[in-house]
Design brief:
It is a single chain. This protein has a 5-stranded parallel beta sheet with strand order 2-7-1-8-9, sandwiched between helices. A 4-stranded mixed beta sheet has the order 4-3-6-5. The protein contains 7 helices and 9 strands. Strand 5 and strand 6 form a beta hairpin. With 184 residues, it is of the alpha/beta class. The chain has a single domain, classed as P-loop containing nucleotide triphosphate hydrolases (Rossmann fold, 3-Layer(aba) Sandwich), CATH 3.40.50. It is globular and about 45 Å long. Helix content is 43%, strand content 20%.
Length: 184
């Protein structure tokens, strides 16, 4: 059976960009789609980028134990990983990657300690700030909240089995692909 690979890192480090490039380069690797209570960003597609759900639907998913992990991120919106698709892919020996936040990674470690936990680092703090500001998708207040959270998340890197630095997309994708292969 394939070993689950959990990718986490601070806001704006490029987790989504790395994972999208990984999916394109290695379509046999399955990447879970998280549920979230936040509104879609421009260009995001329901069921492809995230499952966009109401707070009430998210509550139901928690109550029915449909989520492998979930968390309130940046003090505002909730995100979670639907459990069944992950368990089905792992049972079918499909290589699986979860792209989640630190809180979620900690929950998965508690329930699936055999998973491989990978922390995606920015090349520098200044670059992380530049990426977050460059997205242009958050208010100033939201950016400040995310940067406070990012400092805490960066301090937790030692909790992970492996670290990758996202200073070059191709290199980061190749590194993640190699870790997924090793987890098989």
């Amino acid at each position: 059976m394939s070993r689950l690979v959990v990718l986490a890192g601070p806001t704006a480090v490029g987790k989504g960009t790395v994972v999208r490039a990984l999916k394109k380069a290695r379509p046999e690797i399955w990447v879970s789609v998280s549920a979230t209570t936040r509104a879609p960003r421009p260009g995001e597609v329901d069921g492809e980028d995230y499952f966009f759900v109401t707070p009430e639907e998210f509550d139901r998913m928690i109550d029915d134990r449909e989520l492998l992990e979930w968390a309130t991120v940046h003090g505002t919106h909730r995100y979670g990983t639907p459990r069944r698709p992950v368990e089905e892919r792992l049972a079918d020996d499909v290589p699986c990657v979860l792209e989640i936040d630190l809180q979620g990674a900690r929950q998965v470690r508690a329930s699936m300690p055999e998973a491989l936990f990978v922390f995606l680092q920015p090349p520098s703090w200044d670059e992380l700030v530049r990426r977050l500001v460059g997205r242009g998708t958050e208010t100033e207040e939201e950016r400040e909240r995310r940067l406070r959270t990012a400092r805490e998340e960066l301090a937790s890197a030692s909790e992970f089995d492996e670290e990758l630095v996202n200073d070059d997309l191709d290199t980061a994708v190749a590194g993640l692909a190699a870790l997924v292969d090793a987890a098989r």
